From TrEMBL:
This enzyme's EC code(s): 2.6.99.2
Annotated protein name in UniProt: Pyridoxine 5'-phosphate synthase
InterPro entries: Aldolase_TIM, PyrdxlP_synth_PdxJ, Pyridoxine-5'_phos_synth
Organism encoding this protein: Dokdonia donghaensis DSW-1
GO biological process, one term: pyridoxine biosynthetic process
Length: 237
């Protein structure tokens, strides 16, 4: 079964816009779980543009499904994850000033660093995932790092979906089969949406989790959280 983990970064964006606590991030996370979300994902960036480090500390006592914290493993992030001990940590190599996550890891070049960080999280009982492009050498490199899972970076799939979905999905299928052969769990995320998620899910074997935020929030502005979450769950059956 593929779990839906809802990324609530953009709820924090709206909250921060007025400096208060509306919408209440903790209540939204809890309500999303009541509506069927099987995980909550956050990505506390160094500039705390949306999710704040304190949000992670508060959410760990609220989230009852799977709690996934994503981020670039700078020391401040490592310390936060070891302090809060979420279900999963997803390591993302994005630059501090990146408008959003925009690259997968070079798991060959950064093997030693990733191995060291991953062991530290695993020793704390935290499942580890690393954000990668669907490139076979990077999947093989991910195996070498000891990560429990990979998260396939799906922006390229989403970009190509409308034009030619059969072509857009090809590298992801190949990468997924290799990951499965290597015994690595498969997550996926970035720019997945109600339009493109079903085809991805139906094409990728052993897909354990999708984390979806930006599109889900935009879709919910029109349709509401309950309808949108239910639609995602139906497409992930
Ligand atoms: C890693 C990834 O693709 C997303 O999880 C990321 O959290 C999106 O970040 P923003 O919400 O800041 O665009
Ligand atoms: N890891 C992907 C994620 O959490 C959400 O990405 P997006 O749906 O906001 O692009």
């Amino acid at each position: 079964m593929t779990k839906l983990s809802v990324n609530i970064n953009k709820v924090a964006t709206l909250r921060n816009a007025r400096g208060g606590n509306v919408p209440d991030l903790l209540k939204v996370a809890s309500d999303l779980e009541k509506m069927g979300a099987q995980g909550i994902t956050i990505h506390p960036r160094p500039d705390e543009r949306h999710i704040r480090y304190q949000d992670a500390r508060d959410l760990v006592d609220v989230v009852t499904t799977e709690f996934n914290i994503e981020g670039n493993p700078i020391q401040k992030f490592i310390d936060l994850v070891l302090e809060t001990k979420p279900t999963q940590v997803t390591l993302v190599p994005d630059a501090v000033d990146a408008i959003t996550s925009n690259a997968g890891w070079d798991t060959i070049k950064h093997k030693d660093f990733l191995k060291e960080v991953i062991v530290e999280f695993q020793n704390a009982g935290i499942r580890t995932s690393i954000f990668v492009d669907p490139v076979l050498e990077m999947i093989e490199g991910a195996k070498e790092t000891g990560a429990d899972r990979i998260e396939l970076y799906t922006e390229a799939y989403a970009d190509g979906y409308t034009e030619n979905k059969e072509e857009a999905i090809k590298p992801y299928i190949t990468a997924a089969f290799l990951a499965s052969d290597l015994g690595i769990g498969i997550n996926a995320g970035h720019d997945l949406s109600l339009d493109n998620v079903a085809y991805f899910h139906n094409s990728i074997p052993d897909l354990l989790e999708v984390s979806i935020g930006h599109a889900l929030m935009a879709e919910s502005l029109y349709l509401g959280f309950e309808t949108v979450v239910a639609s995602y769950l139906e497409k992930l059956q």
